[in-house]
Amino acid sequence: MPQTFQQSVITEFRANAGKVGGPFEGSDLLLLTTTGARSGTRHTTPLGYVRDGGRLLVVASNLGAPRHPDWYRNLLARPTVQVELGDQEFESLAVPAEGTRRDELFARVVAVAPGYAEYQDATDRMLPVVVLELPDPDATPPEAASLADKLVRVHTWLRGELLHVGAETEAYFAARASHSGDGDAPAPGLGLQIRQRCLAFCQALEFHHTAEDGQMFPTMEGYHPHLRDVFDRLREEHRSIGVVQSALAALLADLTIAEPDRFRAELARMSAELNAHLDHEEKHILPLLADVSWPPAPPAA
After folding, report:
1. pTM of the model
2. Which one of 95, 138, 143, 150 is separated from 4 by 20 to 30 angstroms, measured CA to CA?
3. Mean pLDDT across the chain
C-alpha cells in the first residue's frame, strides 16, 4: 500500500534527523505523537513549531478549519506527549496557553511564521497555542544500578509532580485572594496549566500502580510468601488512592475545573494518602530489590 503524504513526511524526517524536502524544505518541523482520547492508539503528526527559549510553541491551526485538529483533542485528554526534534526524542507535557499569555505567544509565533495569522483570519475559533517544554539537560537523573534505585526514581518523580501540582494550585488561590484593582481576576475555574499537569500525574500514577499490581508484586510475593500481608496492604492502598484519583479525574473532565475548592480538598487528600503509601512501600519493598540489577540482564543463550 502506498504511503500517505503525511506518512512519507514522517519517514523522511526520521531517516534524515529531522530534515525534510518538498514543501517543508527549510521549515522548522517536529513530530508530535499523541495518544487517542478514546482509542488509546498512538498517532504521529508532523507540525511546524517556533522555538521560544526553553520551549517549543505549536499552533492547532488545522489550516484555518472550523474544528480543532485531532492531535489537539488528544492532548487535552492525555497531556503527556512524545516529541521528535531533529535527532532528539523526548517526553513532554503539552499545555495550551490561556488568556493574555496565549495572545502574547501567538504574536511571537506570527512574527516568525506570518501564515498563522491567515489561518486565524479564516476561522471563528481561537487557534490554540500549545507549549511543549524542552528537557532540562542538567536534570538528568543518575543511572539506576538496581531495581530499588529504579523504584526510588519513580517515587521521587511522583512526589515531585504532586508537589508541583499543589504549588500551582496554591499560587492560583493566592492570586485570586489578593486580587484588587481594575485588572482581570483569575478565572473561577482552575487553569489549563494545572489541569494538564494534574491529569498527566494521575495517568502516570495509574500506570505505575497497574504495573506493580500486575507484574512486580505477584513476582515478589512468589519469592517472599511471608510478606503476603504487606503486598495485600499495598494493593488495598492502590485501590483507595484510585478512588481519590477517580474523583480528581471527574473534576478534570472539563477544560476548566468547575469546582476548584473541591479539587483542592481532593488533591490534599490524595497527597497525604500517596506519600504515606510510598513511605510504607519503600520501607518494606526496597530492601528486597537492592540486589536486583537494573536494567535486567538479558536471558542466557
Report:
1. 0.88
2. 95
3. 91
